[in-house]
Amino acid sequence: MKVEIYSDIACPWCYIGKRRFEQALDRFPGKEDVEVVYRPYQLVPDAPEAATPHRAWLAERYGPQSVAMDARVTELGRAEGIDYDFDAALHANTFLGHRLLHLAETEYGAAVQGELKEALLKAHFSDGADVGDREQLAEIAVGAGLDRDRVAGYLAGEEGAEEVRAQLAEARTLGISAVPTFVFEGRWAVQGGQEADTFLRVLEQVTAETAGDTEAAAACTDDSCAV
């Protein structure tokens, strides 16, 4: 089974959804036969290259309710083992990070890409890193197992940019407008940071549906980061 997860490095619900899906996968008997691949999505594609404080950006966009938004995510994240630090977090353009994830998938495989995704989310939400900065991205990538020279050369040019733009366009073609969105076998979509039990039921349902080769579809929505 192939699961493609459309998400953004700057989406806090994508971090929660990742953890909950992994919990479900750990409980799924067919775990070894599931390939998880991360696909790009940008909540703020026109974000400037220069990073700015997250708190200030969110307040400008959502007003006073931004404080409550962060507080809710922080509380829910804590239950999933995530330590959000929104006071230190930086609002940054995530395109370079998505290019790096593309490199990880194509040259190192899905498992390494997953490790890099976790590292990027932690760096952004817990460590106050600038995930739009090439040098910081290189350090994060090396920590996830990528070669430093390869990463430096890759980020210095435009390699992978066209492919990532094509994947971003594909997400729009599929009608994805909020993340995280989990696409199972290219046929079933689940949106939002669902509970682990929900993800487990979907994994079981998709397994049953593909075994029977039916056209039934599973879809549900919950908390997610909408454009």
TrEMBL record:
Pfam families according to UniProt: DSBA
Superkingdom classification of source: Bacteria
InterPro entries membership: DSBA-like_thioredoxin_dom, Thioredoxin-like_sf
GO molecular function: isomerase activity; oxidoreductase activity
Residue ranges annotated for the DSBA-like thioredoxin domain, each copy included: 3-203
Keywords: Isomerase
Protein name: Putative DsbA family dithiol-disulfide isomerase
Species name: Kitasatospora atroaurantiaca
